Amino acid sequence: MTEALQTGRVVIAVDPHKAPWTAAAVDAALQPVDVIRVDVGPEGYRRLRRFAQRWSDPGWAIEGAAGLGAPLTQRLHADGINVTDVPAKLAARVRVLSTGHGRMTDETDAISAGIAALTATRLHTASVDAAITALRAVVEHREDLVKTRTQTVNRLHVLLTHLTPSGAARGLTADRAADILRQIQPRETGLKTLRSLVADLVAEIRALDRRIAKAAGDIAAAVETSGTTLTELTGIGVLNAAKIIARVDTIDRFRSADAFATYTGTAPIAASSGDVSGGPRASTHGPRKESVTDPFLTPPEAFEKDRLDLYQPDRAPRSVTGGSLSRHQMATC
To answer: Which of 197, 215, 245 is the last residue of a domain?
Structure first.
């Protein structure tokens, strides 16, 4: 946010949370001028605006403006105020390198966000797309439903082992469980109770199946409305396209393809220690573990090369991810 430095404007930096907003006014000398803590809500927003009116034309910066700070970002945008999005990692680096032992408090987080906004040169103006926010919510809702269904099916498997010696085969569905249940007519009170529980779980699974199907339909409609061309790529269906859109938001917020690769955790970086120099490995930055883009951004030939280079005579066998290979793993490579 170089404009704030050039004109000497004060930046109102906010550390957002679900309950309070903590704001710090940071001047061009990177010094905090004042701090305020307000409750999240209309009254807290009005107090925040009155706090900012103490300075002439202040800039605004929010840590995670598209995350926890999205409600505040939307309010400010509605009032015609642009907001600089400060990544949480950048604010954390500023805090760690500052004086005061890098202690993490809401006040220091807000001040760190203000300093980052004044000194960083490649920060973007935050934008909150209501359609993407809704898509992200539906995708997460579907994932929660799928997890709940998996847990319910697991409980159903356990109960069926008490009612029938063979239990149920894998891939159990509500219809298959109902068929099994019809063949079980216990006379003992305990077994009748178990059968009743199984019937309840079957009903829960049917309800979850309907909710998952509805969520999938909502996701498909949202992806079609977005006009994305992701589904034209081999291996990416509607659900994966929705996850990518929900996670990445707009591609314009990345300054280059390299920055996007770093975000997804697929950017190769050099690995070395002393005289030992390893080959390139995947970056650990970005949401790599959850990223649905990972398998699509890594060329297939890279995996094949890793298979051929798993064992080298001058070093111990290592796996692609850096762990030691077992004898069985080496035999199957």
So the answer is: 245
Task: Report the 10 Å Cβ neighbour count for 163.
Answer: 18
- Residue type for 96, please? V
Q: Residue 133 pLDDT more than 60?
A: yes
CATH number (domain holding residue 14): 3.30.420.40
Phi, psi of 9 (to 5 degrees): -70, 150
pLDDT, residue 55, reads: 92
Q: What is the pLDDT of residue 198?
A: 93
With 0.70 as the threshold, say if the pTM is over it: no
Asked if residue 98 and residue 34 are part of one domain, the reply reads yes
What was the pLDDT predicted at 43?
93
Strand partners, 181: none
Summarised one tens digit per residue, pLDDT across range 160-187 is 999 888 788 888 999 999 999 898 888 8
For residues 28 and 73, the answer to whether their CB atoms sit within 8 Å is: no
23, 48 contact by CB (below 8 A): yes
Distance from C-alpha of 27 to C-alpha of 31, rounded to nearest angstrom: 6
CA atoms in the 13 A half-sphere facing the CB of 192: 3
For residue 245, with 0-12 CB atoms within 10 Å meaning exposed, 13-18 middle and 19 or more buried, which class applies? buried
Rounded Cα distance, 333 and 330, in Å: 5
Residue among 248, 46, 104, 1 at smallest CA distance from 13:
1
Query: 252 in a domain, yes or no?
Result: no
134 and 233 housed in the same domain = yes
Do residue 11 and residue 116 come from a single domain? yes
pLDDT per position as a tens digit, 38-51: 999 999 999 999 99
